[in-house]
Amino acid sequence: MDGERAMRDPEFTLATGPAGVYPRVLAALSQPITHYYDPVFLERFRRTEAKVGQVFGTANEIILLQGEAVLGLEAAARSLVRPGMPVLNLVSGIYGQAMSLWLKSFGAQLHELGVAYDEAIDPHEVAAYLDAHPEIELLCVVHCETPSGTLNDCSRIGPVARARGVLTLVDCVASLGGMPFDPDGWQLDVCVGAPHKCLGAPPGMSLLALSPGAWAAIERNPVAPRDSFLSLLDWRDRWHGSGRFPYTPSVSGVYGLEAACDVFLEEGRAAVLARHELAARACRAGATAMGLRLWPAREAIMAASVTAIAVPDGLDQAAVCDYVRARYDVLISGSEGAGNLVRIGHMGPTASAFHPVVGLAALGRSLADLGADVRIGDGLEAALAVVADIRRTSA
């Protein structure tokens, strides 16, 4: 019986991406495939680019790459980095560390500024490091480190870099559409997002916003990819320049992405971000009242799209996730190597008052089953109290 239960689709997917998909997006994905040079699809692609720009809140040029966000991150890094280029990479988690591996392989002269995976980068330390190393030309940072549930303050890091003539490459995959993010106001140069987290669409595309300064640097780079699946220049010059795609775009992916943008824009930025913050506050309050420890060191650096929770001593994060899935048909996320922690995602459709309560109930009951001392009822009461309080004060 348990084996059969484990093979079923989960009743609730509260992972940290791919997250839930809005019904409107699923409906869009089911539409008949249009040839990619049909005038209707060409117009739809251009319209979707414009809507992605609105979601970003930027006047910068938008590029939609036809591959999961790792493609966009690699394409951006390869386009900017040349052998021997001094690059500062800010490392506060697994994804930041992965960027270091790429930068080394691309021949960058790598500088790192790092913190423990339960902390965030201090913008004052970034300023001091750049002042001590004026040769640095590019800074890379992850806005939301999903495996740790932490947030780096790009609103301050961006201006620090711009004031010193340093370009920025920002991974906003887990924050775009769920947390405040302002590429133009924060003076960011290359921002790489994705549809499969807070926007509530499937994986399979990379959403990039590039400043004029970024394009100028890419043009100067003799090793920036050309005639390549990774080429940003090909997309700009062929698609934006002459209306010809470098390769066949993901037709259904564009359908789904446009629908996800419509959901975001029609609900409104403020309402969407408030919904994500409500879910995060409820989940944090519930986990704390249950007697669990939140993984990030401080509330100020906790992301609104995911709650990271330290696993009690004597238990292993992978075993806990497996138990939650097999016993209670709820899928939550493990740590991906960030530490002994589990994560409840609240992104897109799962950023609601209800979903964190489900996640907390399944996690709390599982921990109790596995021998941990947890106060399940207190946790659920605390989560629901947050929801009730916010609903009452906003009424």
Structural features:
single chain, 395 residues, alpha/beta, Aspartate Aminotransferase, domain 1, Aspartate Aminotransferase, domain 2, 2 domains, 7-stranded mixed β-sheet, two-stranded parallel ribbon, 13 strands, 45% helix, globular, disordered N terminus
Descriptive overview:
This protein is α/β, with parallel strands linked by helices and 395 residues long. The protein folds into two domains: 145 residues, Aspartate Aminotransferase, domain 1 (Alpha-Beta Complex); 235 residues, 3-Layer(aba) Sandwich (Aspartate Aminotransferase, domain 2). It has 14 helices and 13 strands. The strands form four sheets. It has a seven-stranded mixed sheet with strand order 2-10-9-8-5-3-4, with helices on both faces. The chain has a two-stranded parallel sheet with strand order 1-12. Helix 3 crosses helix 10, helix 12 packs across helix 13 and helix 13 runs antiparallel to helix 14.
Distance between the termini: 46 Å
Continuous helix count: 14
* Tally of separate domains: 2
The spatial strand order of the largest sheet comes to: 2-10-9-8-5-3-4
Percentage of residues assigned to helices: 40-55%
Strand content: 5-15%
Order of helices and strands: HEHHEHEHEHEEEHEEEHHHHEHEEHH
- Large-scale geometry: globular
CATH homologous superfamily designation of the largest domain: Type I PLP-dependent aspartate aminotransferase-like (Major domain)
What Rg, in angstroms, do the CA atoms define?
21 Å
Q: Class by helix and strand content?
A: alpha/beta
How many individual β-strands? 13
pLDDT < 50 stretches: 1-6
- CATH arch. level architecture of the largest domain: 3-Layer(aba) Sandwich
Give the CATH level 1 class of the largest domain. Answer: Alpha Beta
CATH-derived topology of the largest domain: Aspartate Aminotransferase, domain 2
The major β-sheet equals: 7 strands, mixed
Mean pLDDT: 95
